[in-house]
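// run 5 | inverse folding | seed 20
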């Protein structure tokens, strides 16, 4: 049974539920946009200070690649700015302090001294290339959030100065919590980022979303790593209003984020705090995963299964964030355990993400089921039933190689075509 495409506000404690309700009422923030914005702000504040060890070989961090998808005028940017606001305010002060320290540093260098170069411990980055982002990460091992009002600011910088998908590979590696090594000629030093942490917080229009992600970014797996969130309210534009929410709510939100940002001190002194799963949490995750896997295999197209694999990671990550949030809100001493209640909430959120993934596949013109652009072109010209030799003949007319046809017949079996006999195939009806 499909879940309702409504953001599950009950995953949050009362204070955050009230923030969602009040901002929806006063500012017309769609519940889904403000709810997911609060989540990525919490994750950004935590950064690498906490991680979740799933087993001996797997560690999950709270990394989120968020796109708020909506038409112009659907109030996409404001929820992100509201949620990240306290962290942005913090960064303004950090940058000012850094500028002063850097001026002092330059003065000491000019005087013949050998001072230690200061580092800007920022949490938010905006106008930066992927290479620049890597340098910032080297100075900020706790992690950052790449915040851009329009996702085109992020997408447009991918491979801007480097061909061959190098930037994309870094973004894929970061999502998978893999280390990054940069050994490039002309650099003064080698960069080693052992545990890169980058959140992506962006907005995007559906048509732009489809244009960017229907090609290579779909095929390399970036699309299914994106937490695409859609407006779960009315489509009409909101009326202008001079309403406001109570200042006490804003202050309390600032305090929650500040408490998580304060984990930074412990991180730089002692390293990351490693959480593990309680037996109840393991059981809750296994039950959800088993039930959903069975449904995927029985009902869902291959493209949904690919999304599901990444949503599994988001369930672990959300459980970690919700556990830390609970400890902060209830002023509880951490036991380094993600409990069953946090995991149950995370699986509910996972179901919500699956419904959003279906929405994504509705607006992306070609899913991974159709493979590459050449695959799609070949598929469009093939008859409902065909032989391998017929496919080769059609491919020749389309200037597609026989080797591509061979790969197509192997890789697309069970997806867009099925084998009926030796050398004979038929299309699978959509």
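// decoded
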């Amino acid at each position: 049974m499909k879940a309702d495409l409504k953001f599950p506000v009950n995953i949050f404690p009362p204070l955050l539920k009230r923030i969602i309700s009040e901002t929806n009422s006063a500012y017309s923030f769609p519940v889904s946009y403000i709810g997911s914005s609060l989540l990525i702000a919490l994750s950004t504040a935590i950064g690498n200070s906490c991680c979740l060890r799933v087993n001996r070989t797997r560690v999950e961090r709270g990394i989120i690649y968020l796109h708020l998808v909506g038409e112009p005028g659907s109030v996409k940017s404001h929820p992100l700015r509201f949620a990240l606001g306290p962290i942005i305010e913090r960064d303004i002060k950090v940058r000012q302090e850094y500028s002063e320290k850097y001026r002092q540093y330059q003065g000491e260098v000019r005087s013949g001294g050998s001072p230690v170069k200061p580092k800007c411990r920022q949490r938010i980055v905006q106008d930066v290339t992927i290479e620049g982002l890597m340098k910032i990460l080297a100075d900020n091992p706790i992690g950052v959030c790449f915040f851009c009002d329009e996702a085109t600011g992020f997408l447009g910088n991918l491979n801007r100065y480097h061909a061959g998908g190098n930037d994309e590979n870094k973004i894929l590696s970061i999502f998978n919590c893999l280390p990054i090594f940069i050994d490039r000629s002309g650099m003064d030093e080698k960069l080693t980022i052992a545990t890169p942490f980058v959140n992506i917080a962006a907005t995007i229009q559906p048509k732009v979303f489809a244009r960017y992600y229907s090609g290579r970014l779909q095929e390399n797996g970036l699309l299914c790593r994106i937490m695409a969130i859609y407006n779960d309210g009315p489509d009409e534009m909101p009326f202008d209003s001079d309403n406001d929410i109570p200042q006490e709510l804003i202050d309390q939100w600032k305090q929650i984020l500040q408490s998580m940002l304060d984990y930074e001190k412990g991180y730089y002194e002692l390293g990351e705090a490693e959480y593990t799963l309680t037996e109840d949490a393991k059981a809750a995750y296994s039950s959800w995963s088993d039930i959903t896997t069975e449904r995927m295999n029985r009902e869902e197209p291959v493209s949904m299964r690919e999304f599901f694999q990444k949503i599994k990671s988001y369930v672990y990550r959300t459980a970690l964030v919700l556990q830390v949030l609970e400890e902060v809100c209830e002023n509880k001493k951490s036991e380094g355990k993600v409990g069953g209640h946090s995991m149950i909430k995370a699986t509910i959120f996972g179901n919500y993400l699956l419904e959003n993934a279906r929405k994504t596949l509705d607006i992306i013109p070609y899913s991974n089921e159709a493979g590459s652009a050449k695959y799609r072109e070949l598929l469009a010209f093939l008859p409902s039933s065909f032989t391998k030799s017929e496919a080769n003949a059609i491919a020749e007319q389309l200037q597609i190689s026989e080797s591509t046809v061979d790969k197509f017949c192997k890789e697309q079996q069970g997806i867009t075509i099925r084998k009926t006999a030796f050398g004979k195939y038929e299309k699978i009806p959509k």
